[in-house]
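Worked example 3 (structure in, sequence out).
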């Protein structure tokens, strides 16, 4: 087999995987994990059931991959917002505001905050969250404690408290009026300012 043939096969496998992820993500985001069957994902993706099982062991494995993709994208948005600032304190505040804004998107909420813990279980969902969002938050808080801009204290519990508050705010925003995002971000800003030494 030619090298070009091997590349084409590899590209096709990746394209199939992306198609499955994109289709599953759209369906999970709009109807939730329980409202979507594998047959529908296969049909809408235009692939065979065998192709799905080549890439994923089943619906839960496919959902896990979608959740990890969403978590990475949210973490990237948070990091980009933080990196746009020069000052570590401004980075923390911008990153937290970006997280709440991302979490306010109903498509993100459904996958990341509602179905994620329910489908995968708290421990597995938490491990994925720890590897992305909480990691960035912990790094930012560690810098601020080391600089004396937040009073000396263990960072791990503070990061979990802030993460929990932001997750809860994002879930609340799903049921609230559109203007509540600005009020929520202002409240978050005041909460963070109260930590400042």
């Amino acid at each position: 087999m030619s090298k070009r043939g091997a590349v084409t096969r590899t590209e096709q496998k990746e394209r199939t995987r992306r198609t499955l992820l994109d289709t599953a993500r759209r369906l999970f985001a709009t109807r939730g994990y329980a409202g979507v069957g594998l047959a529908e994902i296969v049909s809408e993706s235009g692939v065979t059931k065998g192709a799905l099982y080549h890439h994923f062991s089943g619906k839960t494995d496919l959902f896990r991959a979608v959740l990890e993709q969403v978590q990475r994208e949210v973490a990237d948005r948070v990091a980009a917002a933080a990196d746009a600032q020069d000052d570590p304190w401004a980075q923390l505040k911008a990153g937290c505001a970006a997280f709440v804004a991302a979490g306010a998107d109903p498509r993100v909420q459904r996958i990341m905050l509602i179905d994620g813990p329910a489908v995968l279980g708290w421990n597995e969902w938490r491990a994925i969250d720890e590897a992305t969002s909480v990691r960035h938050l912990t790094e930012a808080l560690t810098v601020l404690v080391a600089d004396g801009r937040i009073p000396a204290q263990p960072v791990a519990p503070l990061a979990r408290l802030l993460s929990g508050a932001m997750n809860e705010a994002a879930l609340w925003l799903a049921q609230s009026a559109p203007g509540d995002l600005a009020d929520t971000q202002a409240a978050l800003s005041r909460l963070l300012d109260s930590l400042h030494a």
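Notes: The radius of gyration is 20 Å. The CA atoms of residues 173 and 179 lie 10 Å apart.
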